[in-house]
Amino acid sequence: MAKKKKKHGPASQDKKKNKFSFRKLLAVAITAAIVSIAVVFIVITARRENAKFVLRNTYWVSQSAKDASGDEVDIHEVYNVRYSQYQGSLTFDGDNRFQLWLSPGDATDGTRSGTYEVTSDSQADVQYDDGTAAVFHLIRSDGRVTVIELNYRDYIVSFTEKKPDGQ
Fold first, then answer.
1. How many other CB atoms are found less than 10 A from the CB of residue 27?
2. Among residues 164, 161, 115, which one has the least CA distance to residue 138?
3. Average pLDDT, the chain
4. Residue 94 has pLDDT above 60, yes or no
5. 3-state secondary structure of 58
6. What integer pLDDT is reported at residue 88 of this predicted model?
7. Angle at 92 between CA 144 and CA 65, to 5 degrees
8. Whole-angstrom Cα distance, residue 58 to residue 161?
9. Which residues in 32-131 belong to E strands, given as ranges?
10. If you placed Cys at 148, which of 58, 74, 77, 159 could pair as Cys (CB 3.0 to 4.6 Å)?
11. Half-sphere exposure of 27 toward its Cβ, with a 13 Å CA cutoff?
12. What is the mean pLDDT of residues 111-127?
């Protein structure tokens, strides 16, 4: 009886190629998935870290105020001053500290400072030096913070960023 010879023709070679190609494809797919997950993680982490620093070294001035019913009120009424040019200010430094100046005078008149932490795209949690906690609401436009709103007495005061001259 004659031995059957193994086939070395195109059919047997296709099986070997397909098996090798499948393993190679699987390895590439797994590697691509791992790299994609890593990139997404890095982007999210970087975005979150950058968001924490969005207010650093910025200067804001009061622009408007609303009363408890949502009606716009004269900003001078909020500050209880008669100065026509008076504006409150809000500054953030590079060490997560802020200073809030809402009316002239001492700290009981609206001059306050403390620490802050941006906790989301729309909120900064603040801790005043006297231990009082509050929230500054961040309003964005095209990804940038354009307005900061905060509660002061019975009002919501809105601040807009003031750029240094020449910018």
1. 10
2. 161
3. 79
4. yes
5. strand
6. 82
7. 70
8. 7
9. 58-66, 72-73, 89-92, 97-101, 111-120, 123-128
10. 159
11. 6
12. 92
